[in-house]
Design goal:
By secondary structure, the protein is an all-alpha fold. About 60% of the residues lie in helices and about 0% in strands. The protein is built from five helices and no strands. The chain has helices at about 15-45, 50-65, 65-75, 85-105, 110-115. Helix 1 crosses helix 2 (about 50-65).
């Protein structure tokens, strides 16, 4: 087990270990599906998935240290999504991401097909929220 990570004893309640496993898998699957979607989008303009992997690794590497802060803020009861990304903000942001993916011909969920096929001819960049690329 420790080959893949820490083998922590979570106490007598076996359900806690199972819940922790599911929580970690939730984060992992979201990370990988996000990367696969990013790779699919960038492949529409000829950028290799390996290049996108490096960009995503750097981007996430810069964000990961902030998880400790967010966790502590949540535990204190001080997490206030209204200060940053409430549900409405997130809904609009996700809508923009879906529109950009569709504009590139890589609608969310299509990454399995996109990553399994060779890179297609480049397409123009999708218009951003202001109508510019």
């Amino acid at each position: 087990m420790e080959t893949l990570g820490a083998a922590d004893y979570e106490g007598e309640d076996a359900g806690l270990a199972s819940l922790k496993d599911m929580a970690l898998l939730t984060a992992m699957y979201q990370l990988f599906s996000g990367f696969l979607q990013a790779a699919a989008m960038m492949r529409t303009v000829g950028v290799p998935a390996a290049d996108t992997a490096g960009e995503v690794r750097g981007w996430l590497g810069a964000l990961l240290p902030h998880l400790d802060h967010f966790g502590a803020e949540i535990d204190r009861g001080g997490f206030d999504p209204a200060r940053g990304q409430d549900v409405e903000f997130t809904r609009a942001a996700i809508g923009s991401l879906i529109a950009a993916a569709r504009g590139q011909g890589s609608a969310p969920g299509s990454w399995s097909r996109s990553c399994a096929t060779s890179t297609s001819s480049p397409r123009p960049a999708a218009a951003g929220p202001t109508g510019s690329a």
